[in-house]
Design brief:
Blueprint lengths: L1 H11 L6 E4 L6 H8 L4 E5 L21 E4 L2 H5 L17
Parallel strand pairs: 1-2, 2-3
Helix pairs in contact: 1-2
């Protein structure tokens, strides 16, 4: 509920030029659809499942320029800090 509320408040107040929602929750269908009428929205699916049907749409809906992406394990591995980072090493087993 917090994600939906903040998304709509930020968009309706004009505080953002675009939004990125990291979720695969069908409950966000309505707020995401409403946001797409006002700003470009990217949806990042952090799960291995297919994108929730209610979060799908068209890149041209509303104001357009919307996009979708599904995170994969390689995304996380490719964005790790070096070891050590600023003199701090990762714990063993990480």
């Amino acid at each position: 509920m917090n994600v939906a509320s903040h998304l709509l408040v930020d968009v309706l107040r004009g505080d953002v030029d675009a939004a990125v929602v990291v979720s695969n929750d069908n409950d966000l269908r309505y707020p995401v659809q409403q946001a797409r009428h006002r700003v470009p929205v990217g949806v990042v699916n952090p799960t291995p499942n297919q994108l929730a049907g209610d979060l799908r749409g068209s890149a041209a809906d509303g104001v357009g320029r919307h996009w979708w992406y599904q995170l994969v394990p390689a995304d996380l591995r490719a964005h790790q800090l070096p070891d050590p980072a600023a003199g701090v090493s990762r714990p063993k087993g990480w």
